[in-house]
Amino acid sequence: MTPEHRRPAIQRTTGNDLMALATESAVAPMQVAAILVLDRPVDTAALRSALAGRITAVPRPRQRLQRAPVGCGRPIWVDDADFTIDRHIIDRTCPAPGDEIALLKVAAKAARHPLSRKRPLWSITLVNGLGAGRSALVLVIHHVLADGIGGLAALALLIDGARPSPEWAFPTPAPMTRDLLVDATASRFRALRRWPAGLRLVRDAVTELGGGHVGHPTRCTLNQPTGSHRQLAVVRADLAALVSTAHAADATVNDVLLTAVTGALTAVLRHRGESAETLVLSVPVSGRGENTPTALGNHVGAMLVEASTHGDPTERLAAIAHTTRSRRQAHGQAASATLLGPAFRALARLGMFSWFVDRQRLVTTFVTNLHGPPSPMTFLGATVTDIIPVTSITGNVTVSFAALSYAGTLAVTMIADPQHCPDLALVAEELHGQFTCLIAGRTERRAAGAG
After folding, report:
1. For a surface tag, which of 30, 221, 400, 431 has the fewest beta carbons within 10 Å of its beta carbon?
2. pLDDT digit string (tens) for 43-57?
């Protein structure tokens, strides 16, 4: 094993990891999922055998969290000496009629089932019995294990044809208390030396969060304290058409997504007999320096995007593109975690986090967008025909959006509390309509230019 493939002797949680742990609740565990739809059935024994062999390329899935002794710093990752793949694989048959709606119900239940802190924080549910002879894998991971980009990097090593990676020595002994104390003390001194840089990071964090220029969203029924139940719906759009739409407006695909979400929520509020002048969308900002399965954990901040509900889709797209472009140019990536992490952890220690997020008036919804593999993948010889992302919602955000591009298609999953967002089908219908309008607007502009 080459030096670059050796694991650090002490692997600690980051500040963002601690935020994910501190802010979850039994009602809303901080767990995310990906649904991989396969074009044929998969045998459970073959799945166990394949994962047992491939998982050795990624250290974290065989590690669990362990608290450090008092004074010895943050929690650490240690090898789970009792690890067995069987504890992490669940076999399910999709209820009739075996369509996407039925599969999404299985996935929603799997994603909200709390993972045991005594074991590595992930599970895979194998779902057979889908229509047309298909099957699916529902991969659930705790947010402390990896953010979305890190999860995709790990997934890339588990599919067929992945590049060979070194096998990590397993299990390795947990660090001694003395070593943890020395490491924690050295870390505190390093933090003091980084104090001037920390002030600059705070400045960048304020800018990332809007610098005080982001107004409060209009109060509406999109913000209500959520319960434990979740409902999912999926809308798909042609990625090439979205790229062309974005380029024609000097925007990004993510800008198009934010514009479509704003338009869809505005229309839903109108159906509910409400109106809103402004919505505020919270958009993750990655601070990753590398995208590898050995550098998991959380490296994400938040960018708040104030979106007007007025104007036609092309006007709103131009306004959102201007906002996001100016924010990206003005701040460092993921700097906002510098402020949000300590603040949220303090609220959690005081027992006030749930009270705060149930009443917050800063954010209307969350919108995540990940770049997935551009070409079709296979697993155990089966083609992965679709990848559906699933994120978590918490506090008083009743519906959020998770997008993932894969093999030429952008899949957008809406995650909602059905009690407070009973019209999720309408949200999906309106989102699809917004994508259609935005793409048609690009076509009309091109035709006008040709004329």
Report:
1. 221
2. 999 999 999 988 887
- How do residues 238-280 score in pLDDT, each as one tens digit? 999 999 999 999 999 999 999 999 999 999 999 999 999 999 9
For the whole model, what pTM was predicted?
A: 0.87
Class of domain 3-187: alpha beta
Task: Give residue 296's pLDDT band: very low, low, confident or very high (50, 70, 90).
Answer: low
CATH classification (class only), 211-375+391-450: alpha beta
For every residue of the chain, which 3-state class applies, written as one string?
CCHHHCCCCCCECCHHHHHHHHCCCCCCCCEEEEEEEECCCCCHHHHHHHHHHHHHHCCHHHEEEECCCCCCCCCEEEECCCCCHHHHEEEEECCCCCCHHHHHHHHHHHHHCCCCCCCCCEEEEEEECCHHHCEEEEEEEECCCECHHHHHHHHHHHCCCCCCCCCCCCCCCCCCHHHHHHHHHHHHHHHHHCHHHHHHHHHHHHHHCCCCCCCCCCCCCCECCCCCCCEEEEEEEEHHHHHHHHHHCCCCHHHHHHHHHHHHHHHHHHHCCCCCCEEEEEEEEECCCCCCCCCCECCEEEEEEEEECCCCHHHHHHHHHHHHHHHHHHCCCCCCHHHHHHHHHHHHHCCCHHHHHHHCCCCCEEEEEEECCCCCEEECCEEEEEEEEECCCCCCECEEEEEEEECCEEEEEEEECCCCCCCHHHHHHHHHHHHHHHHHHHHHHHHHHHC
